[in-house]
Amino acid sequence: MPRPITLFLVALICCLPTFVSAATNCSIHAEWSQYTPPSGYTVSGYRLYQEGQLACQTSNSAATSIDCLVSMDTNTADFTLTAAFADGTQSPHSAPFSFSIPSIEMGAGEVLVKMEAGEVLVNHLWRRVSFESTFNDPVVIAGPLSYKGADPSIVRVRNVSKTGFEIRLTEWNYLDGAHTDENVNYLVMEKGRITLPDGSFVEAGRFTGTTSFKTIQFSGPFTKTPVVLTTVASMNETDTISGRIKNIGLTSFAYYFREQEKNVNTHANETVNYIAWEPGKGTIGSLQFEVATTSNSVTHAWYTKAFQNTFNQAPIVLADMQSTNGTDTSALRMQQLTATNFVVKVEEEKSLDSEVSHGSEAVGYLAISQVD
Predict the structure, then answer these.
(1) Which residues pair with 257 in a beta bridge?
(2) What's the whole-number average pLDDT of the chain?
(3) What is the DSSP string of 55-93?
(4) Is the dihedral of CA 353, 357, 362, 364 positive or negative?
(5) pLDDT class for 25, splitting at 50, 70, 90?
(6) Which helix H or strand E contains 292, and what residues bound it?
(7) Which pLDDT belongs to residue 97?
(8) Percent over 90 (pLDDT), the chain
């Protein structure tokens, strides 16, 4: 009876981030000890299995390694190896080697990025969004919302877990609360800091937000002022709030949130997620991205921002004001998202008065799309 082969090293060379509708594509490098078959058997090659299904094989009988592209629907998979024999049989499977998709910097410009992005239809009712794979410590960013319903509204997230999150729209408290379906883009990344192949930094984290501006320190310095995207990710108090950002630098930024203008601005502390991404454009595996900030040009009037990239389809776009030049309670709305541009404006609420004019703000955005 042939003995099992010993699979002693499986290394994940890279994980390609995908949209929520697709699995994560990875390149697996497997190595094993030189195998000597028992008497009467001739090795004709080797076969690598993923969860019992053939992933790839080689007809090189002298091989001691193999590189294989695999698709992982879950965060962890077991790999086994067999020796194939000339008579059509194979050795018993090796002991399984369990591999989990990491999301850490690997050095020498090589990085593993675990993220999912997508678009959901959201109204005033809570909706659960499930991740395609399991995260260890996910950071979720969502918004801005589209402009199908004219009542001023905010995106709210809660109950972020390893497998998904809940999301809904909240109108300002002076309104009736019911809102039509809106399109909302979202991005989820593992909490932590990574270096992209071009040397730029990305950091995903969270902090406790309050009604007074507080300085949030990055875990490490950036080389270029990053675009900061934020989302309130808890529901400790039901009153609608909008977060604002200012003073973004290489080591920190300032943030606070406020309720509608008619209210005294007191509110329970809330968890706030953020992603800080240095400006630039390029690709990460199968994804094309662009990160940039407008000039101080976005007001209460619709503003068209053209992409620097040429996208094959309308990308996922996340955006946030990077300044607090106008202090009236407000948030962004977005429409007419295409492969070439998007249209955005600052939307104030009317709880105190009907005036909605807003001073010019800088808007930072991340656009990301699957490469065909």
Answers:
(1) 243
(2) 88
(3) EEEE--TT--EEEEEEEESSSEEEEEEEEEETTS-BPPP
(4) positive
(5) low
(6) strand 287-293
(7) 82
(8) 66
Q: Alpha-carbon distance 193 to 201, whole Å?
A: 7
Contacts by 57-63 with C-beta closer than 8 Å and gap 24+?
A: 57/84
Residue indicated by tokens 């019992």: 52
Q: How confident is the model at residue 146 (pLDDT cuts 50, 70, 90)?
A: very high
Rounded CA-CA distance 368/364 in Å is 14
Rg (CA), the chain: 25
Nearest-10 Cα torsion for 333, 335, 337, 343: -70
Q: Any idea what DSSP says for residue 218? A: -
Residue type, 304: T
Owner of token pair 């295409």: 338
Q: Compute the CA torsion angle 356, 358, 180, 271 (nearest 10 deg).
A: -120
CA quadruple 338, 362, 291, 148: dihedral sign: negative
106 φ/ψ angles, rounded to the nearest 5 degrees: -105, -5
Q: pLDDT for 6-24, tens place per residue? A: 554 454 444 444 444 445 6
Which residue do the tokens 């630039």 mark?
280
* E-state strands within 33-181: 43-50, 53-58, 65-72, 76-85, 97-100, 105-107, 110-111, 115-122, 127-130, 138-145, 153-158, 164-171
DSSP label at residue 20: T
- Whether 106 has a pLDDT exceeding 50, the answer reads no
Quote the CA–CA distance of 253 and 41 in Å, as a whole number: 66
How does DSSP classify residue 2? P
Burial of 137: CB neighbours in 10 Å, binned 0-12, 13-18, 19+: middle
Report how far residue 294's alpha carbon sits from residue 216's, in angstroms, rounded to the nearest whole number.
Answer: 22
Model confidence, pTM: 0.73
State mean pLDDT over 191-219: 92
